[in-house]
Design brief:
Elements lengths: L3 E3 L8 H5 L8 H10 L7 E3 L5 H4 L2 H8 L2 E4 L1 H9 L7 E3 L5 E4 L2 E7 L31 E7 L2 E6 L16 E5 L8 H15 L3 E5 L22 H15 L17
Parallel strand pairs: 1-2, 2-3, 3-4, 8-9, 9-10
Antiparallel strand pairs: 5-6, 6-7, 7-8
């Protein structure tokens, strides 16, 4: 059985600590607890969508513990180097790359970070933790199409789009990034829905990157603070669009197992 993980991030340092510019680092206790709760004992691949701390920081430590190869931009590779991963345990990815793991294939789509990127740029040398969140620059920004004989999943972590990029994909399950979507103008929201959801025609949408990622996973999920996003506005958009299209939207709970193709 193949093991593929997208954006392993379990430490979740508080947003206050991040905002104050205090150094952050992987919490090995939280990482091991999350791997155990999630039943993750082996990985073939860990794909990183971009190199902000809430996507990449824990990823090298996860690879050290359960194996596999870290896939990401040169910035992500530099995070791996700073954590002591060997070059044989890392692979740089680019738009259109395709990788096979057993019956799965993973195709890479390069896109754009959601509007208001706080830490744009690249990480140009090994990043050794602890470090400030601002040191974790975006690097490349990617989405991942996972194809299997029984179905297709698109993981789209950042709430932005490249026009017509996903046309004719026709996926079964869409993990849809909605972080900061509620803070965007209505036209942007409509365009985002058109180029991600309408383009791919999923049977199910699972929103991601909507919750306060500064809260530990052993606490109940809650939306990001109002100063960062307007979750109520996003929820209204999802409810309305779901009703219009007949496409169900489901918020997944921590450690909940979903069998996507049943």
């Amino acid at each position: 059985m193949s093991g593929i993980l997208i954006d392993g991030f379990f430490t979740r340092p508080s947003l206050l600590r991040v905002a104050l510019g205090r150094p952050i680092a992987p919490d090995l206790g939280r990482i091991c607890d999350a791997l155990s709760r999630g039943g993750i004992e082996h990985l073939d691949a860990l794909f990183v969508a971009h190199s902000h701390h809430d996507h990449v920081m824990d990823s090298p430590e996860i690879v050290k513990r359960v194996g596999g190869v870290l896939y990401g931009s040169e910035s992500t590779v530099n995070v791996g180097r700073g954590a002591g991963l060997g070059e044989q345990s890392m692979t740089r990815i680019g738009d259109g790359d395709t990788y096979a793991f057993g019956d799965f294939t993973v195709r890479v789509f390069e896109g754009a970070h959601s509007p208001g990127d706080r830490y744009p740029g690249t990480i140009d040398e090994p990043l050794v933790p602890p470090a400030k969140a601002s040191a974790y620059r975006t690097g490349g920004c990617y989405s991942f199409l996972l194809e299997h004989p029984t179905g297709t999943i698109l993981v789209h972590p950042s709430a932005n789009f490249v026009p017509n990029q996903f046309d004719r994909l026709d996926v079964d399950l869409l993990y849809l990034g909605i972080g900061a979507l509620g803070a965007q103008p209505a036209q942007f929201q409509n365009d985002y829905w058109h180029h991600t959801v309408e383009a791919t025609r999923p049977d199910l949408i699972i929103p991601v990157h909507w919750d306060d990622f500064g809260r530990p996973l052993n606490k109940k999920l809650r939306p990001m603070p109002r100063v960062l996003d307007n979750f109520a506005k996003t929820k209204e958009l999802l409810d309305r669009r779901s009703a219009e299209s007949g496409t169900p939207v489901r918020f997944q709970k921590p450690y909940e197992t979903i069998t996507p193709f049943n």
